[in-house]
Design goal:
By secondary structure, the protein is of the alpha/beta class. The chain has 25 helices and 27 strands. A hairpin with a 6-residue loop joins strand 12 and strand 13.
Length: 741
């Protein structure tokens, strides 16, 4: 037991820190942020993703602006809209997610009044005609008249700017000052407002604010149903609309039974006394409710307002419906960051709230969950603190998994069965941290040698090789040494053109997928990943772990990289991205391998002429229209295991001696007969070419081109044509010299 005391002490410290957060003795921002992300994930996993037919959004969209003119429109047009909605379409209720704060001067009535008082005041006929035309020209009066005795709810906003100037009118408060005295409820408080013209406010059936609450991460998850302004309390747009639908019931604050008057928590708002049964809407300590998102944008039918004005909307789409008027037009769009979209129309937030209130589908986050969270963290953490130190890694993993699954199960049960949002981050972090601490303890105490090797070689070689090295660590070091190794270089063809055609985030995603897929292949065949050079990859075989089959594994890697690229290209094309083509060069020879660099930065890498040649081979793949070239050294070691196509003898830049270059066709025994026959014919053409028998070489090459067209055959046909006109002479060695890398 004594040996476990340090772990018990550290575990209890972790548990106490998280319990303090759960009990709200203090708050840890990261834990709160993680809880918000978990809430978002649960919401996205469980939302219905269906279109609610009861609520429609009348959209001031681009089409409407194009056909009806720029916003704001004349109030005569809005008056016509109201008449059509209620008289022609039989709309049940209309709410506005816009504010009508300024008078409408589009008819020129104000100018005419000024003329009647000044320049034309001596013209009685003008004043007489103006009096007759006034009812037609007073667009604001027409709009106000169209709202009278109709279920129309206006929207307005509050502001927290101390220097803000209030404009327009707000409706009567739903609760007077002093209603919640002593309750210590954290109402959202505002200092100014932007309301509608008084005549509109008077004519409408009601009004509500459309201010959401924005959490610390910038996400809108809640809307305050009641807010405080100058000591009085005002309802939200969605609540005002639901109350109108239910016959304008009174709002009764809901408190738990037998709670003292000093209890800070109002847990729900009850709508009672209307034409429908009482309706309870859950709220939190800020008198706010969680927005019950049905899905991504489009969970409610959007109807362009211009289609309503031009009678293009079937009556059945609007008859008996609830409408929220808002905008999605660029420049007017009210966008919010939400759990279901980074740019979500604010008007659809109101639609979600209306539907959620009517369905009773709003999640609740009551204050009593604080106690439940503390209890769960204490129980889960206690089990982990006192049980894990005595268990083996396997059993500790089983216990930790069971505890974590129980926490998840309880949390989701609260979510589904009771519609209660229970925090999960504190308990989950407690389980994960305590498990990690116990595993790390054994790791640091018992696995020092393995850790040292992983630190030295883990970024270069696959984990299974590190495991192999850890069994005999004294035989491995990063000191420089000479050895015969095989090196591989690969590069993306036309990468500059590809990068210019993609956005930065798309390019980063593409390269991550490509490099990830290629690295998997390298590690699968026991390769040591040296480095990424932009879009290029450098790897080698035979160090730090000796590999007698280093050449074979490198060739297998090059072949499989092309297979993996073929599969990857399917995904890239599906995303509308360009296909990738690569060149691969492999060479075997003596190299210096070890940790090399400067005191500032070092790398476990290889150097030498054989390495340089490998790089040159990759570079000339495009000269022969092939995707893979190996040097003589590699081919000699694996010629019994692979079929090769000899491409040429070349003298690369920086090297005087010519070398043969070969294209791997496939593994011995796995190459099709047709390919073998083609290869025999190619070898014959190559012999004729080197013997300067231009005519026979050309005939053979043309036959090959008819059988299976290749860039390689076309290249040699052009060479034959050139050498026929400019013979190379008797001492010609058939070597092609490259002057560039």
């Amino acid at each position: 037991m004594k040996q476990y005391l340090p772990r018990y002490g550290l575990g209890l410290l972790i548990l106490l820190v998280l319990l303090g957060h759960s009990a709200r003795v203090y708050q840890i921002p990261f834990v709160n942020h993680l809880d918000s992300l978990i809430y978002d994930a649960k919401l996205r996993l469980t939302m219905p993703r269906t279109v609610d037919p009861r609520v429609v959004i009348l959209d001031i969209d681009e089409k409407s602006l194009a056909e009806q003119g720029r916003w704001p429109w004349g109030r005569d047009k809005l008056a016509l809209l109201m008449d059509k909605l209620f008289n022609q379409y039989g709309m049940r209720l209309v709410g506005f997610d816009v504010v009508f704060a300024e008078p409408d001067d589009s008819s020129g009535l104000r100018t005419l009044d000024a003329l009647a008082k000044k320049e034309l005041r001596e013209v009685p006929a003008f004043s007489s005609v103006l009096r007759e035309l006034r009812p037609q020209l007073d667009n604001d009066a027409r709009f106000a008249e169209s709202m009278k005795n109709r279920p129309i709810i206006l929207g307005y906003y509050f502001s927290s700017r101390e220097d803000g100037v209030s404009t327009g009118a707000v409706p009567s408060a739903v609760f007077p000052a002093g209603t919640f005295a002593g309750r210590r409820i954290g109402f959202t408080q505002w200092v100014s407002h932007g309301g509608n013209l008084p005549e509109f406010q008077k004519a409408a059936a009601g009004a509500g604010h459309f201010n959401p609450l924005v959490d610390g991460d910038g996400i809108s998850r809640r809307v305050p149903l009641l807010v405080e302004y100058k000591g009085q309390y005002y309802e939200s747009l969605s609540l005002a609309m639901v109350r109108n639908l239910l016959g304008n019931p009174v709002i009764i604050p809901g408190y738990p039974s037998n709670s003292p008057s000093s209890y800070a928590a109002m847990e729900w708002l009850e709508l009672k006394g209307g034409s429908e049964a009482p309706l309870a809407i859950p709220v939190d300590e800020n008198a706010a409710t969680l927005i019950p998102y049905r899905g991504a944008q489009g969970s409610f039918r959007y109807i362009s307002i211009t289609d309503v004005l031009t009678d293009k909307v079937p009556k059945e789409l609007l008859a008996g419906r609830i409408a929220v008027v808002g905008t999605t037009a660029p420049g007017l769009m009210d966008l919010r960051a939400t759990p279901v979209g980074a740019a979500y129309p604010g008007v659809e937030i109101h639609a979600n709230l209306i539907a959620g209130m009517l369905d009773g589908a709003i999640k609740h986050k009551p204050p009593y969950i604080l106690g439940a969270d503390v209890l769960l963290v204490l129980l889960a953490g206690g089990v982990m603190v006192f049980l894990l130190p005595m268990l083996s890694p396997f059993r500790a993993t089983v216990v930790g998994s069971i505890v974590l699954l129980l926490l998840l199960g309880i949390n989701f049960s609260f979510w589904h069965v009771s519609n209660v949002v229970l925090p999960l981050a504190s308990g989950g972090i407690a389980v994960i941290l305590l498990y990690a601490m116990n595993m790390s303890w054994g790791y640091f105490v018992e696995s020092r040698t393995k850790r040292q090797l992983t630190g030295l070689f883990g970024q270069y070689v696959p984990p299974e090789l590190v495991e192999e090295m850890s069994r005999d660590p004294e035989n491995y070091s990063m000191a420089g040494r000479k050895a015969e190794l095989t090196v591989l270089f690969s590069d993306v063809r036309g990468f500059t053109t590809i990068s210019e055609g993609l956005e930065p985030d798309e390019l980063a995603s593409l390269m991550n997928q490509y490099l990830g897929a290629m690295t998997i292949v390298v590690r699968k065949h026991r390769g040591t990943l040296d480095k990424y050079i932009g879009d290029a990859i450098m790897a080698f075989w035979g160090a730090p772990v000796d590999d007698p089959e280093h050449a074979k594994n490198a060739v297998l890697t090059g072949l499989e990289m092309h297979v993996a690229l073929h599969e990857l290209n399917k995904d890239l094309v599906a995303k509308g991205w360009p296909e990738l083509k690569i060149g691969v060069g492999v060479n075997t020879g003596p190299m210096t391998v070890g940790d090399m660099g400067s005191p500032v930065r070092q790398s476990y890498t290889v150097m030498g002429d054989a390495v340089n040649l490998g790089s040159r081979l990759e570079g000339i793949t495009k000269q022969y229209g092939v995707g893979f070239i190996v040097g003589e050294g590699t081919r000699e070691l694996v010629k019994k295991e692979f079929i090769f196509r000899e491409l040429d003898r070349v003298r690369v830049k920086g090297k005087e001696d010519p070398v043969g270059i070969y294209e791997p066709v496939g593994e011995e025994g796995k190459v099709e007969k047709d390919d073998l026959d083609e290869l025999k014919l190619w070898n014959q053409a190559l012999r004729l070419y080197r013997a300067q028998d231009w005519d026979q070489a050309e005939v053979t090459l043309m036959n090959l081109q008819r059988i299976k067209p290749r860039y390689l055959y076309d290249l040699y046909i052009k060479r034959v044509e050139h050498l026929r006109t400019e013979p190379p002479g008797e001492n010609w060695d058939g070597v092609t010299t490259f002057e560039t890398k």
